[in-house]
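Help! Submission page says 'invalid entity' but I think these are all valid:
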Amino acid sequence: MAVTQLPTSGEPTRSRRAKGVNWKALQPYLLSAPQTLVFLLFLVIPIAAIVVVSFWNFNGFAMFPGFTLNNYLGIFTSKVYLATYLNTFKFAFLVWLVCLSISYPVAYFLSFHIKNPKLQTIWFLICTVPFLTSNIIRMISWIPFLGREGLINQALMGLGLTKQPIEIFLFSDFSVVLAMVHLYALFMVAPIFNSMIRIDRNLVSAAEDAGASPFQIQKEIIVPLAAPGIAIGSIFVVTLVMGEFATMRIMSGGKSSSVGYLIKNQLDSLQYPLAAANAIVLLIITLTIVFAILRAVDIRKEL
Amino acid sequence: MFKISRRNFVTGGLATGAAIAAASCNPNRGPTIITNKIKDVTLRLMGTGAAQINDIRERAEKELGFKIKMRALSTAENIQIAITQPKQYDIYDGEFFSLPLVVPSGNLQAIDTRKVKNFDKITPIFRTGELYPGARVNTSQGTAPRKVMFVKGQNSTEFATSPTDWATMIPFQFNADTLGYRPDLVNRKIESWAELFNPEFRGKTSILDIPSIGIMDAAMVMEAQGLMKFSDKGNMTREELDQVTNILIEQKKAGQFRAFWKTFDESVNFMSSGEVVLQSMWSPAVTAVKARGLKCVYARLKEGYRGWGGGLGLSKNLSGIELDAAYEYLNWVLEGWVGGFLSRQGYYSAAPENARKYMKPPEWDFWYEGKPAAIDIIDPFGKKIESQGAVRDGGSFSDRMGDVACWNSFMPEQVYLVYKWTEFIVA
């Protein structure tokens, strides 16, 4: 992008002397204006509105402008809400862990074991194929597969491995984690792959020549250099799971709840200030996690 | 700094966020041109999916001569918009239990029943609350339509306890809900709500996860088991809600529930996949399971049904020729064709005798009289849903509606209810 340099303060510009408006100097601002406006209108203002409403009074039916901390106090003093937050953390952690342990080897295989760049691209595209269908369809398609009379149970019983259908396959924590990993693993594979593919292969050869074991190579070279990718992938996965409500509801059969689902229920019951307070708390927690990840890993190396 | 009034904020927030559906609807009708031509009028209807059907819209436009726009929403969105965005609709198609929330907002105008030609054809369930002497429905609990049907005067937002000339909504469809089950997997007759917590069906039952309706079904079960007694299941105290939730959590921890459903389709899928064999259900869902070739019974339970009713309310923004058109629409809905259309899906028309004019005698006998079907029963879309000889579960109209023990409700302790329900879900 051709952005002209801003005139520095010590250097008087010709155009300023010539005319009142310096169009050249305004150019970068004009270029960034549309983006800024979009952010202001659709991100900053709505969030500001949510913050404002989260302090409003609520009498059970209607909300009134005002300032009260009751909505927040309610969240922090209630066992139910705390349990919901803990449940959300639990799933965020589990999904992150499983995503990482699947994505890291996949990315490693793609970048180090496939030598032909063309094949690499093809393999990577194959990884993305399931993502061409909608989220919801991918999630729902697990249900007939995992159910009591689903394919897995029929296969297991057909093979004589079990007599009774195994019920924990569906509508359980297991099915929630499974579906979320399926939905979000690619968001982890892509950035890790992207980091790994930039690792100088000579480093690996040098390490091998120096007698490093495969484990040492992973620990000392690959993992540190792939860290920005892992961090970016983790940010994607954690933020997505923290805000989840549809997968949680459908795959747990409504037997488990997340903060997102709690917020949705409160919206459905017209309890806007309570929902707003929960949204703000969730936002702050998620941002804290993101900042923690950014502090641990310098992702600018990646960009 | 931006000055955000409450209404602007809510409108803006909902428009950008929750109600993306709003994008498909164009609220700008431009300035109203004063003419006497009713054909220039466009009425905007908003409601849940049940009656937002193209067949109904097309027929209405043809017979009435003005345009109608319909917008199908979820129950929650429907109520939200009714309260927060009065300019978005002309006619509100909602459930009676939403009225304690919607009417105080002042967004509906009272309907002059003298201008509704077929008002006296409406079943007494709505007008007086008395279906026939001694019927259980006469003293039913919850937000019974009779409690919210009328306001005290044209400009009042206070409900009247006895009929007045000013109605909140004109009812047009209603039904009685109960438990549905798979007779081939249950192997016996289900006759009490108590069976939902029977250990015999551990891990194979479901309840609906819409707090205000789910809690009523749970209350029916607990009362049937003799665990609790309620003075009004539609208006529980905090202590009652605590107790109901504790029992629900106990049952959940014991593994009684396979899952909870929130949408119509989910309930159909649970039942037809065999994940669940006994659950609270809606009547057309039972029909849908049967349409897949599976046996499904809509149980008649000795403790009675949970009823619901839907009606049409008029926006306070309507006036002049548009208001006339809206009254014409109300009259048309009661006239019978819509009633026949909905009846053939298993709902009841609020003016049954008018609906009868548009139904074949064997259809009437099957849906309203509880008699064996003399012909194959076809739904309004041409699909066969019952074979000759079948009998409607629960029997006749008076058997089913007369046996309604409670109605879908809006509870004064709604916030606490949602809170306790969340506790149950996360437990």
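Support: the input was valid. A stray whitespace character was the problem, and the output above is from the cleaned input. Chain B has a mean pLDDT of 88.
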